[in-house]
Amino acid sequence: MKHGTDFLRSTLADEVAAIIRRHLTGERAARAEILAAALLSGLPAADLDTLDCHQFFAIGVGLLGAMEQRRPGQVNLRLFNPDQERDGWSSSHTAVEIVNDDMPFLLDSVAMKLSALGIGIHQLIHPILAVDRDADGHLVTLGDGRHGESVMHLQIDRQDPADHAGIAAGIAAVLAEVRRAVDDWQAMRERIQEVAATLPSQAGATAAEDIAENVAFLDWLHDNHFTFLGYRRFSLSGPAEAPLVSMNGEHSLGILRDAATMVFDDAIELAAMPDEIRALLSAPGPLLVTKSVSQSRVHRPAHMDVVGVKICDAHGRVAGLHAFLGLFTSAAYTRNPAGIPLLRQKVARVEARAAFPRHGHDAKALANILETYPRDELFQIPEDLLYRFALGILRIQDRPRVALFVRHDDFSRFVSCLVYLPRDRYDTPMRLAVTRILEQAFDGTLDAYYTQVSEGPLARLHLIIRTRPGASILADTGELESRIAVAIRSWADHLQDALVQEYGEARGLALGRRWLDGFPAAYREHHLPLAALCDVERLERVAGGEDICLSLYRPVEASPHEARLKLLRRGDTVALSDILPILEAMGLRTRPGRVLARIRG
């Protein structure tokens, strides 16, 4: 298959080159062939069969025009609805052309922006070309130059021309953020090294062991485990009981060079410090790891991680904060916590505090809980709370039940909820029901959710509920667990309860095991669980030897001339013609268009 694709790609390249030579001459033709070859090499194999070579030629000529003049640091961006007369090709989609300096995150970031706007991508080609330009930015060499340039051609959902400028401005803003982050990447890495070097002198009363672990964590971030996107330094001023926070713009790097980009939120950065922040900065320990209120527009769509390092004055008082904004790399999520500074210490202390026999069942189960704990949570959760939650999760492993573990963000911006539910019943309606309960309880809205369904009896649902600024609602966890348990109860659960109440625990459970899975979806949709209680009794009679069981009845919601019949029989389905004589013997009379029932006394 690969050889067939290579042959087709080579054949199309020859055809496009022939078209170029018929329509262009000299250096322009040579450049067009180089660009066309680069574009074709990046074209997905699925698009080769339907490729129109004349249209592909026109697309390449348009992109070559976009490359003709561009200064370093400038982005050439065009968004248009292709027109045959103007552009030499037409399409039912909108086209986007972008020429930029080559750098990381370009493709991901542009795709993220379009996705955030609800715009689908139908085609994306992104070659990197080596170029040289003169002092005015004019293209001198294409194909073997000294500088890499990113050339993007996208075809997206058709857009109204009136919206083109706004979409283009949004893409340009994202590309500007990418540039700021990439340009200052090395400076941010150097800054975190400087901060790590000064951390021991900021120790105060912090234990030497903890300071060493904090320094190791900062070094670990520097060692390509953190995608640095921004840095900002904050200063505290005014009285200790009501300090003000100000940001030092001259020290800002990356995307935080833009003063409008927030690390925490407006209230923290531009106004008096809330009580929660004051308490956090006065708490023991020089580091804090949390989440930004803002989603990244660079690299991947996630709330950015914030690593804060306190700045202390000569008297040991917190006088400011270094804030590094970015995203943990994949290693932070896939590596065992035992290999990550800070996490390894937190996990080890929780295990030591639990004091389970080293090779016992509980010790192994606890280790698994901590290893698979949501990684962002593991970074942020205090050690005492992690200990309580981990033991709580351990207790429900052997006696599965609905369980809820709630952590309030230190900055009162969101509530993190871990919900454990029966695995065999977890589905989308159940998730939505749980979400509604927690949104109502915390007066917030769902920000993100993550699901883990493993081999055990429980599924884990991790919900992040964004709360109103300044709101801090302490809901009763036990009451919420009860509400969730009721909300997710199935039809079979209610029938099982009815069987136990009617027949006692032993026989009720036995009947449930025998019959609960025997009621089809259509039956469950039209009959309440209590109505099925009588049918279980009839099923038992038929299973015990009775040839057939009938029930002719009128439901409470039925009209005066409506009756319903249930028939239970072992073996094959019974034809209606075989049943009518029995019904006639019971007094049934039929008329055209309707059936009337009358039972003889």
Average predicted confidence as pLDDT: 88
Contiguous helical run count: 22
Question: How many beta-strand runs?
Answer: 19
Percent of residues in beta strands = 15-25%
Helix content: 40-55%
The quaternary organization reads as: single chain
Low-confidence stretches: 592-601
**Shape call:** flat
Gap between N and C termini: 79 Å
Sheet of most strands: 6 strands, antiparallel
- What gyration radius follows from the Cα positions, in whole Å? 34 Å
Secondary-structure content class: alpha+beta
Question: Which properties best describe this structure?
Answer:
22 helices, 19 strands, five-stranded antiparallel sheet, 601 residues
Describe the structure.
This protein has 601 residues and is an alpha+beta fold. It is 43% helix and 24% strand. It contains 22 helices and 19 strands. Strands 1, 2, 3, 4, 5 and 6 form a six-stranded antiparallel beta sheet that branches. It has a five-stranded antiparallel beta sheet with strand order 8-7-11-10-9. Strand 18 and strand 19 (594-596) form a beta hairpin. The protein is flat, with a radius of gyration of 34 Å. The relative contact order is 0.05. Mean pLDDT is 88; it is low at 592-601.
Question: What is the secondary structure topology, with strand pairs?
Answer:
Blueprint lengths: L1 H22 L2 H16 L11 H15 L8 E5 L3 H4 L6 E8 L4 H11 L4 E5 L2 E6 L5 E4 L4 E10 L7 H20 L1 H14 L9 H15 L3 E12 L6 E11 L11 H5 L4 H8 L4 E9 L7 E10 L5 E11 L1 H5 L8 H12 L6 H11 L3 H6 L2 H13 L7 E6 L5 E9 L5 H14 L2 E10 L4 E10 L9 H11 L3 H13 L1 H11 L5 H6 L2 H15 L4 E6 L10 E6 L6 H10 L3 E3 L2 E3 L5
Antiparallel strand pairs: 1-2, 2-6, 3-6, 4-5, 4-6, 7-8, 7-11, 9-10, 10-11, 12-13, 13-15, 14-15, 16-17, 18-19
Helix pairs in contact: 1-2, 1-3, 2-3, 5-6, 7-8, 12-15, 13-15, 16-17, 18-19, 18-21
